[in-house]
Amino acid sequence: MLQVPKRCSFCAHKLVDNVCKNEKCIDYKAETTEDSQEKK
């Protein structure tokens, strides 16, 4: 059986390491300072 790549539930983009790499997607996790601000 071929392994079907997981896809983002928001934009159907293929996931890389379970993370959406589509910059236009609302679930895209950018490596920026925005991530640290959300934790506060």
Question: What does this molecule look like?
Answer:
The chain is largely without helices or strands. The protein has one domain. Helix content is 12%, strand content 10%. The protein is built from one helix and two strands. It has one helix at residues 34-38; strands spanning 15-16, 19-20. Strands 1-2 form a two-stranded antiparallel sheet. A hairpin with a 2-residue loop joins strand 1 and strand 2 (19-20). The longest helix has 5 residues, at 34-38. The chain is elongated and about 30 Å long. The model is unreliable at 33-37 (pLDDT under 50).
Q: Stretches where pLDDT falls below 50 for ≥5 residues?
A: 33-37
The description of the largest β-sheet is: 2 strands, antiparallel
Overall mean pLDDT? 73
Gyration radius, in Å: 12 Å
Q: What would the principal axes of the Cα set say about the shape?
A: elongated
How many domain modules?
A: 1
Task: Tell me the number of strands.
Answer: 2
Overall structural class, as computed from helix and strand content, comes to little secondary structure
Number of helices: 1
Compose a concise summary of this entry.
The protein is mostly loops. Helix content is 12%, strand content 10%.
Keywords:
40 residues, two-stranded antiparallel sheet, little secondary structure
Q: What's the arrangement of secondary structure elements?
A:
Layout: E1 15-16, E2 19-20, H1 34-38
Antiparallel strand pairs: 1-2
